[in-house]
Write a structure and sequence with these properties.
Blueprint (H helix, E strand, L loop, with lengths): L2 H11 L4 H8 L3 H9 L9 H8 L3 H5 L7 H18 L1 H14 L4 H17 L4 H21 L2 H17 L3 H10 L9 H10 L3 H32 L3 H12 L1 H5 L8 H9 L3 H16 L20 H17 L10 H11 L5
Helix pairs in contact: 2-3, 6-7, 6-8, 7-8, 8-9, 9-10, 10-11, 12-13, 13-14, 13-16, 14-16, 16-17
Pfam families: HTH_3 (PF01381)
Organism: Lacrimispora amygdalina
InterPro entries: Cro/C1-type_HTH, Lambda_DNA-bd_dom_sf, TPR-like_helical_dom_sf
């Protein structure tokens, strides 16, 4: 077993709480919790006392004879892959199971080996009947990895299990595992959850889930492009900044977002360069788009989710805030002597959105 599993299981066997372990060792309860999750490890000076507290020896605590390093796992998996390529999948599969019997509690190795077998089986071009012989055992490997692996390995193994259960129609099992996965991690569970909903005929919920993810992703892309444009400017590369901003402005057409939002990155570039004519042109487009917002409720891409209603009152307030910002913020001072800018301000001060 890995160190975190040893601590967790031996603590429970000893009838101790995380708080009691923390008190005995002079650390915090959250620190002990992190040890058991595998996200951190105890300081080396605490190991003898921790071993005594758990009534085990240091060798057992550190799993010297059970855990494999990342390098050892890579070496073993290469050996397995070489056998599969030279002697066939069946021989490689048997070798994998033999190695797992040697390291039955090394979650990371078991998970990696299961992934390797999954991929090799696909590459072998087996038909459904041939795959059936191995699928159950590979699923058992993911279950074994989830039981003994650290937090990240458990997340990855449970994700693969949920995917396998969805494929075999075991939807209740898949749902339970998906519920265990964190909302945000290196693995995004939403596409798989949407697939599960679709198979159950719940297309409206699947559509809502994916549309919200799409909208959030587009907004994140916008923000990233703005930051990249800003970085290019700070590095003295205005042409790169302009090109990045140009790509940001295409998002409205591609993904059906408000046109107003797409001017933020190009405008930031024009402001940094103190480009009067370009800034005024972009401001004119931005303010005009505010008067005529896109009805995203009728969008092809967002028809399952409620979209904000940009009422006339909201748009009037937004317009006043923007105009005040243009007048008062020093970063726009380079525009204040421009007659064209003054005409622009005069025009939109008199506008009343209906």
């Amino acid at each position: 077993m890995p160190l975190n599993t040893v601590i967790r299981e031996k603590r429970k066997e000893a009838g101790l709480t995380q708080e009691e372990i923390a008190d005995y060792l002079g650390v915090s309860a959250p620190a002990v919790s992190k040890w058991e999750k595998g996200s951190t490890s105890p300081d080396i000076s605490l190991l003898p006392a921790l071993a005594r507290l758990l009534k085990i020896d240091i060798n057992t605590l550190l799993c010297f004879h059970e855990e494999l390093s990342r390098e050892e796992v890579i070496k073993l998996c290469k050996e397995i892959m070489d056998v599969i390529q030279s002697k066939g999948f069946e021989t490689g599969f048997l070798l994998t199971m033999e190695k797992i019997r040697e390291y039955p509690t090394c979650g990371y190795f078991i998970h990696t080996a299961a992934l390797l077998l999954d991929g090799a089986m696909l590459m072998a071009g087996m038909n459904a009947g041939e795959k059936e012989k191995y699928l159950g055992q590979i699923t058992s490997l993911y279950e074994q990895a989830a039981r003994y692996g650290d937090e990240q390995t458990r997340i990855q193994s449970n994700f693969m299990l949920a995917s396998n259960y969805t494929r075999t129609g075991e939807y209740e099992k898949a749902q339970k595992l998906l519920d265990l996965l964190p909302e945000r991690s290196a693995i995004d569970k939403r596409p798989l959850l949407a697939e599960l909903l679709i198979t159950q005929g719940k297309t409206d919920k699947a559509g809502e889930l994916l549309e919200r993810r799409l909208l959030m992703t587009v907004q994140e892309i916008q923000m990233i492009l703005m930051k990249l444009s800003d970085i290019a400017l700070k590095e003295g590369q205005p042409q790169n900044a302009a090109e990045i901003s140009k790509r940001s402005s295409k998002l409205a057409e591609l993904f059906g977002i408000q046109e107003y939002d797409t001017y933020a990155a190009p405008l930031q570039t024009a402001i940094d360069q103190k480009n009067v004519s370009e800034s005024i042109s972009l401001l004119k487009s931005m303010l005009s788009s505010l008067l005529h917002p896109v009805d995203l409720g009728n969008s092809l891409l967002y028809r399952h989710i409620p979209m904000p209603d940009y009422t006339a009152d909201i748009r009037n307030k937004m317009l006043k805030v923007i105009l005040r910002e243009l007048e008062d913020n020093d970063k726009y001072s380079y525009l204040h002597s421009s007659e064209e800018f003054e005409q622009l301000m005069k025009k939109f001060r008199s506008v009343q959105v209906k």
